[in-house]
Amino acid sequence: MIEVAEADHIIAVALPTYPPESRPLTSAYGAILRQAIHADRPQPPFDRATMDGIAINCSEWEKDRRAFSIAGVQRAGESAKRLDDARKCFEVMTGAVMPQGADCVVKVEDIEVADGVAVIQDGLSLASGNFIHKVGTDAKVGDVVLEPGVRLTPPRIAIAAAFGAHEISVAKPPSVAIISTGDELVEAHETPELHQIRLSNVYAIEAGLRMRGFTDVERHHLPDDRDRIQSAIAELLERVDMLLLTGGVSMGKFDYVPETLRALDVEQRFHKVAQRPGKPLWFGIAPGGKPVFGLPGNPVSAIVCFRRYVLHHVERAMGLSPNPNLASLAEPVTFAPNMTYFMPVSLTFDESGRQIAKPLRTNTSGDFGTLGHSDAIIELSRDISEFEAGYVAPVYRWA
Ligand code: AMP
Ligand code: MG
Predict the structure, then answer these.
(1) Is 201 in the pocket of ligand 1 (CB under 6 A)?
(2) Separation CA 172–CA 116 (nearest Å)
(3) The domains spanning 48-133 and 326-397 adopt the same CATH topology
(4) Which superfamily, per CATH, for 326-397?
(5) Does ligand 1 lie within 6 Å of residue 197's CB atom?
(6) How far is the CA of 200 from the centre of ligand 2 (A)?
(7) 366 alpha carbon, closest ligand
């Protein structure tokens, strides 16, 4: 049995580096960016009016001029016009380039227009630069506006679009087969006999993958039959990039997974981690370098191990930058067994913005009803058995 940190290290070094692919911006949402995006032009690209109103030369206002005759209109999308008489103004629209010779926008609410003359209200304090977003103040040409390793959220898609990155390099998720084993299990749409239960893990795992943008995901269910398990795994190892098995990895008489994997020359890197839930976790590498995770069958263990190990490490191998998410315990927790404890928690924020984890205790490792109230699991160190309120630890969110 190994420690969580050792399991992390073994998985991290064993996983391949998944190659990127090029995708149109319109289908890159949620993906992990694999290139830097640079500014191809300044942001904003020109001195831009940020209000509807008039564009004036502020020095005339400073000389107490309040009435400016209107020389014309500067609309958004027109190239810059020229104000050649400082006693005049241009009507200007939000998003328009500032007319040459003007350096200040007065909002439409602060003027009155009559007979082609705009009169500025008294009592304003105007200055050169008013309501102008100056060229290059957000980014200069060549600046890195997005770093590789970030997930493409809607704001980041906007940034990529603004700088013309319409075809971008993102992580290509590996193809995954999820295999469950167990004679007692039936599909979700079936009516179980009294001695049967419905599959649940595999649906959770598939959902977890698809939510993160994995599209090449297949699900298979096998009875506890050594030969069928072996031939199915052999066939899938030829075809997919990664195998996730659930069930059959414990010490039961019909837990054929570890011996089947041995027979197929899948090299075991570890079996069993000092953690609860999820102690029976198995990990190995198939010939050709394909990772195989043997997740426990128990539903809570399977979901926790999938989130904590599979998603965590595979997304890093896909280039996601580490971004630890920490939370403070809302109340004390005692956990005596000498193991890392992954406890379901709900997450909130306190008045100072600290993330707070409220423990949701499960009564057994099979109690996944409690997980329905949880936002995440918190990882409580093996070295401590009495955790005080306020103890800070990593959390792994479901979504
Ligand atoms: P095993 O690891 O095969 O001994 O399974 C441990 C427990 O998890 C048993 O109660 C199984 O019925 C249950 N189990 C195994 N696989 C699944 C699954 N895919 N969905 C829900 N429960 C499962
Ligand atoms: Mg089983």
Answers:
(1) yes
(2) 60
(3) no
(4) MoeA, C-terminal, domain IV (2.40.340.10)
(5) yes
(6) 13
(7) 1
Q: Please tell me the CATH code under which domain 22-43+138-171 is placed.
A: 3.90.105.10
For residue 180, the ligand closest to its alpha carbon is 1
Q: Where do the structural domains in the chain lie, given as residue ranges? A: 4-18+173-317, 22-43+138-171, 48-133, 326-397
Q: Distance from CA of residue 292 to its chain's centroid?
A: 24
Report whether 195 contacts 142 (CB < 8 A). Answer: no
Ligand 1 site, residue 184, Cβ cutoff 6 A: yes
The number of beta carbons lying within 10 Å of the beta carbon of residue 314 is 25
Instruction: Among 201, 293, 305, say which to mutate for ligand 1: greatest number of ligand atoms within 8 Å of CB.
Output: 201
Number of the ligand 1 atom closest to the C-alpha atom of 255: 3
Residue 199: Cβ within 10 Å count: 21
Measured from the alpha carbon of residue 225, the closest ligand is 2
Is the distance from the beta carbon of residue 242 to the nearest atom of ligand 1 less than 6 Å?
A: no
Name the closest-CA residue to atom 23, ligand 1.
Answer: 297
- Domain 48-133, second-level architecture: Beta Complex (2.170)
**Spatial separation of the C-alpha atoms in residues 291 and 318, rounded to whole Å:** 14
The finding on whether 299 has its CB within 6 A of some atom of ligand 1 is: yes
Give, using CA atoms, the residue closest to atom 12 of ligand 1. Answer: 184
Query: Measured from the CB, is residue 298 less than 6 Å from ligand 1?
Result: yes
Coil, strand or helix at 174: coil
User: Hey, what CATH class is 4-18+173-317 in?
Assistant: alpha beta
* Ligand index nearest the alpha carbon of residue 298: 1
The one-digit pLDDT tens for each residue of the chain (399 residues) are 999 999 999 999 999 999 999 999 999 999 999 999 999 999 999 999 999 999 999 999 999 999 999 999 999 999 999 999 999 999 999 999 999 999 999 999 999 999 999 999 999 999 999 999 999 999 999 999 999 999 999 999 999 999 999 999 999 999 999 999 999 999 999 999 999 999 999 999 999 999 999 999 999 999 999 999 999 999 999 999 999 999 888 778 888 888 899 999 999 999 999 999 999 999 999 999 999 999 999 999 999 999 999 999 999 999 999 988 999 999 999 999 999 999 999 999 999 999 999 999 776 656 777 889 999 999 999 999 999 999 999 999 999
Half-sphere exposure of 368 (CA within 13 A, CB side): 14
Backbone angles phi, psi at 117, to 5 degrees: -125, 135
Pairwise CA distance, residues 101 & 89, whole Å? 10
